[in-house]
Inverse folding.
């Protein structure tokens, strides 16, 4: 299997201990996901959980008027299916693939059987759920208090962290709904970033040219979320080395060339570095 599609490219799978991985790996199914695929419907039964590798998945809340509002987004840092180990078996929102790519699918019953062994997987998934709750809270605060430009930079940086490329598929209307502003506000903010050579935007498609440029104009919320990720996923323990040999703590895929020669995940790696000690202590 190509290294880029190894299970270890998903952070949660990379954190599994050897015994857990060997019990679950025969049931991990690599699947291709296309943009627009619906994995869960509102109040739909969750028969599978998904561990993205190169795909990103949006969890949307459906409004009475037919509109949608994004609650959260999942990429190679996590998994889709948190309600299963929080006591439910149905999805509160609709899960839609936003960026095409690959994910590993695992039967919900198989995951829960391992969860109820009350071993390291239980602790890992509960840590992940805690971080997800913090991320949703931070998103609400960000959309209430920060400028459109800052929110757009945050969104683009977070998408880079969850993606296998610096090419992002999204319309200005979609992004406006996610960051809580009108389409015209996204247009103005995107134009400002494009004029400074930070991004290139054409209809439905964004290319990030300078990650450091985005980081220079983002609000503090991006670093707060990165710190939470450091708490969730400190440096890979030796027990997981069997998955892929050497694995970077960022969990990122191979580096992509930006105009300022920054690596794909440098932003989160830098933001998390000063918190590595706290991260290791927090989960002892």
């Amino acid at each position: 299997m190509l290294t880029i599609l190894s299970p270890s490219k998903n952070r949660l799978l990379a954190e599994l201990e050897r015994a857990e991985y060997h019990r679950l790996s025969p049931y991990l199914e690599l699947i291709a996901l296309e943009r627009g695929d619906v994995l869960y419907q509102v109040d739909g039964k969750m028969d599978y959980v998904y561990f993205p590798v190169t795909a990103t998945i949006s969890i949307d809340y459906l409004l009475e008027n037919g509109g949608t509002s994004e609650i959260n987004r999942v990429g190679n840092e996590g998994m889709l299916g948190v309600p299963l180990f929080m006591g439910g078996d149905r999805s509160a929102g609709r899960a839609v693939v936003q960026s095409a790519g690959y994910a590993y699918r695992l039967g919900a019953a198989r995951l829960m059987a391992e969860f109820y062994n009350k071993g390291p997987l239980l602790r890992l998934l509960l840590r992940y759920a805690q971080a997800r709750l913090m991320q949703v809270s931070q998103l609400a605060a960000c959309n209430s208090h920060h400028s459109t430009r800052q929110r757009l930079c945050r969104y683009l940086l977070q998408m880079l962290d969850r993606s296998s490329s610096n090419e992002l598929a999204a319309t200005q209307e979609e992004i406006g709904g996610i960051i809580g502003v009108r389409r015209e506000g996204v247009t103005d903010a995107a134009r400002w970033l494009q004029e400074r050579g930070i991004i290139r935007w054409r209809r439905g498609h964004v290319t990030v040219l300078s990650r450091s440029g985005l980081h220079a104009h983002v609000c503090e919320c991006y670093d707060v979320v990165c710190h939470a990720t450091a708490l969730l996923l400190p440096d890979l323990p030796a027990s997981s080395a069997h998955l892929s040999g050497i694995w970077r703590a960022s969990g990122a895929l191979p580096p992509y060339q930006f105009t300022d020669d920054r690596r794909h995940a440098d932003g989160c790696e830098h933001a998390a570095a000063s918190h590595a000690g706290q991260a290791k202590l927090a989960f002892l």
Notes: The longest helix spans residues 120-145.
